[in-house]
Structures are given as C-alpha cells and as structure tokens.
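Lecture notes, unit on protein representations.

Consider one protein chain, 342 amino acids long.
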Amino acid sequence: MTSPAQRIADLRRQGYLPRDESVASVTDRLAQPGSSDHARVLHAQVTGGFAVDVLPARGLDIGAASVAGHPLAWTSPVADARTLDRAVGEAWIDRFTGGLLATCGLANFGPARDASATGLGVHGDVHHLPARNVRATPSRGLPEVVVEGDVERSTVFGPSVRIERRITNGLDAQGRPQLEVADRIVNTSSLPAPVAALYHVNLGAPLVLPGTTVDVDARESPLREPCPQVPSHAVLPEACEEVTEAVFEHVGVGVDADGLARARVTSPDGLGIEVSWSAATLPRLYQWVLPSRGRWALGIEPASAPLFGPDRAGEHAGAPLLAPGETREHLLRLTVVSLPRG
C-alpha cells in the first residue's frame, strides 16, 4: 500500500505538483518596525501536515500552529513579542505571548529561585535566548521540513550548556500530521550543569473548549493547590470570570515499548492531538489549565525536574546534573490523531 507521503511524492514526480514548494516550504520573514510580530519567523508548512511559525529569537521555539486550517496554539493576551535582555523575577510572564511551544529552563523553571538572577526567575531564560546556526530545509518533493539550530546558555563564572535542536514537520507512517522536536543538550563547560527543562505545550480554542478531554494513563493526578473552577484534569470546564489557574501533576504515567509517554487532547467535535515524549529523560508531566474568559488555555508540560513539592528542595531544585562534556537527549512529538467530524 502506498503511504500518503509517497503518494504526494509520486504526484510531484509525475508533474501534477509543478514545484517542490507545493509539497513543503519555508518562508523567512522579519518583523516590520512597530509591529507586534516576532523579530524573525520561519513559517514551515507541508502538504497534509502542520503549518508552524518557528521563532529563532525565542530559543527556536514554536509560535502559531495550525493543521488543515484549524488553529492549535494558544495566543496569550500579551502582544509585546520583544525578547527580554534579563529574564529575572516574573518578567518572563510579562512577555509570554503564548505559542505552541515555550521551552522553560535550563537553570530553573516554575517559581523564581532568585528574583535578581538571570535564568533563575520564573521559567528561566532559554525561551529568550537567540538561536544560532539556524537552517531550514524543505525536502525535495516530500512532505517534510527540517529546521535546526543551536541555543547557547553560557556564563562567565558558571556552567555553559548548548541545546542542539532539530524540528521536523512532516507526516508519520500512517500519513498523520506530526511535529517532532528533538533536543541534544551538551554541557560545553568544565563544571556540572543542571538541566531543568520543561516543554510548555500551549493549546487553545478551537481545540480547547468546555468539554475537551485530556486522557493520560497516570496512577494519580494531584493538584498543586485547590482550584474549584477546574474540578477535574480530565475534562475542561466552562470558562469563569475570575483570573485563576490549576496545575496538576500526573504521577506514574504509562510508558510504551518505544520509551514514550503520551497524553491525548480531544475537542468536543473530534479534533484530537497526541503529545508524546521521551519518558526516561522527561519523567514528569504537568498540566496547566487557565479557565479564565479572555485568557483560556491548556498546557501539557513534560519536564525533567519537579515543578513544585518537596522534591524541589536542594541546590538545583531537584534538576538532574550534566557532567562536563556529557550529553542528554529530549524528544517531544505532536501528532494529529483525528480531525473534526463533519
């Protein structure tokens, strides 16, 4: 049986798709002065797959994303897309524009550990570091685009770490839209380096609506603190007027034979996204629900370290240490498992 990717390749070879750009393309654009757009955007799209904005100035994270015309990424009410010179205190939140992926870390994520130190504020500073060696490669006649680049977190008197990121936008073996983020993290210094990484996958309407379900095979899913507006992690509630949030930790998430853990988000009309990740290097999973009207969001957040609780006690808040010269690999995948009915 011919795969969907091979079928598209055959159409290109037979001359029914006259240019490779009909199958896979990348558009590189710069923000206009005075606009609220990100400084530089690589818009990557493939036939039958995702259309995503990759952001080189934001740690090669992902902004807007859609599939078959359906928006997936959450858009924050914050419109100021300028990066921070110093990610201290709670400044990260003031420039949180949303987007499909915001990488948090690497010295810290979650609550600030030192309000005056760069990288130890809320969610660290990687999301505000520029990527280097950025290259975008659409395939020749196949529905795939690869974007690669390096993000360096270097200090004079402390450890230095490089994230070598590869984003693959394509189709899986079943022809389903799939987006993969593969990070190779390298300790480039002579000092041990903490790796506190949290992959903040932000989903919004029309995927996330009242009644949207979140399926996770977990032993338990406790709340960080009570939130009456969100009585369950499994079903999104009606929007509320007050500004509040709920954060769940999914404990004991099942792992498949490929070493991946999974969470599935399904809208009431059948649009379904599966988030999967490397369970060995990202052993924790958090879920963020922002039920407030005008801010409405869902976050699925695989992580290498604790976000809250007693495990955050200690010098590096429970983050694993990377020895000098050592590497660590993280994998995150988003797969569209179903499109809306009708």
